[in-house]
Amino acid sequence: MAAEQGQWLLMATARSPTNIAVIKYWGKRDEALILPINESISITLDPDHLSATTTVAVSPSFDRDRMWLNGKEISLDGGRFQSCLREIRRRAEDVEDEKKGIHIRKEDWERLHVHIASYNNFPTAAGLASSAAGFACLAFSLAKLMNVKEDCGELSAIARRGSGSACRSLFGGFVKWTMGNVADGSDSTAVQLASEAHWDDLVVIIAVVSSRQKETSSTSGMRESVETSSLLHYRAKEVVPSRILQMEKAISCRDFATFAKLTCADSNQFHAVCLDTSPPIFYMNDTSHRIINLVEKLNQFEGEPQVAYTFDAGPNAVLIAKNRKTASLLLQRLLFYFPPPTGSELTSYLLGDKSILQESG
Ligand code: DP6
Question: Ligand 1 center to residue 207 CA distance, Å?
């Protein structure tokens, strides 16, 4: 390592958006490798609004691996960070920077330490899938720094080791996380079903019902569901496989009515699984239920689905409107029934775009 004598610093930066599942992942068949009990499909949002930006740096002067999240140092002790770092280091290659006179041989990566600084451009505490964006970005930026040659599919299997849903954020547009067959989980990866350009008239609106941190994390919630919910096992075996096929077809044909029916049904079944867990897990609240009613009524009035709703492990609503016209109608209704507190900022934007709508209650 020629540059070992001097003080030098090499950096790489990446940005990854978060993603929203329309067919949910809920339950692991292998906790350590983070392998799912069913396939899932998601939409990756626009990085301009909900994304993580991560800078990773390496220098011989660093005496240990360290990480800062939104400017605050966090522990890297958790097994998930360590397995992402280990997997990337194993694949690291030689790095040459002629200008700086840096030559890192692949074997040097084992003893060089990294510093990681990650920022979310949205409130981390708001329950908006920040770990998906964060781990996708961590895997991608480390791979860039260490000259890892693997493609995004292979990197998705590494991001998955950080947080299951993170693997889907390695791709834009519509993404499927496959089950995989091999024991080490290397083929449980994300694949892009279609780019965002394929169906760019969809509008995603996020209604922030509560910015409080959830009481039951996804990780522990799904573990409890696997252990206690018979509905979860029925869902994984009998329901999701055919839903995945139908959803793939709906996306490929841009069939919004089918897309919306499947999205809403899958969100509702996921929350039914949470209720079927012992003790039951309540992620949605009264406001979430009122938003579901509002969308159901709007769809009934229009004669066919114009808006889909989906809720993750929290009360915030992700609403997907068929087009801009429907989105503006939906926003009007939301503003009427859930007026934001005076002085709050309300913005709306397109796929990838999302409105953060603050509800006063
Ligand atoms: C409800 O990916 O956060 O958002 O793999 O334990 O980190 P871990 O869980 P996580 O779970 C996401 C669950 C979900 C559904 C989904 O995104 O598919």
Answer: 19
How does strand 307-311 pair with strand 203-208? unpaired
Burial class (CB in 10 A: 0-12, 13-18, 19+), 274: buried
Statement: residue 352 has pLDDT above 80: no
pLDDT grade, residue 207 (50/70/90)?
Answer: confident
pLDDT given at position 356: 39
**C-alpha of residue 26 to centroid of ligand 1, in Å:** 7
Q: Residue 117 is encoded by which pair of tokens?
A: 């600084």
Identify which of 25, 160, 263 to mutate to test ligand 1's pocket (most ligand atoms within 8 A of the CB). 25
Cα gap 22→165, rounded to integer Å: 12
Mean pLDDT calculated for residue range 224-235:
98
Nearest to 106 by CA among 114, 89, 94, 96: 94
Does 350 have pLDDT greater than 50?
no
- Quick one: which of 34, 44, 17, 76 has its CA closest to 222? 34
**Can you state the percent helix, strand and coil of the chain, rounding each to 5?**
40, 25, 35
Query: Does residue 8 sit in helix, strand or coil?
Result: coil
Judged by average pLDDT, the poorest of 18-22, 91-95, 351-355 is 351-355
Tokens of 287: 């406001």
**Which amino acid residue places its CA nearest to atom 7 of ligand 1?**
163
ipTM above 0.90, yes or no: yes
Beta strand segments in the chain, E: 10-17, 19-23, 28-30, 35-36, 40-44, 51-59, 66-69, 72-74, 95-97, 102-104, 113-120, 174-177, 190-194, 203-208, 307-311, 317-321, 356-358
Q: Which protein residues are within 6 Å of ligand 1, measured from CB?
A: 21, 24-26, 34, 40, 131, 163-165, 218-219, 312-313
- How confident is the model over 81-86, as a mean pLDDT? 94
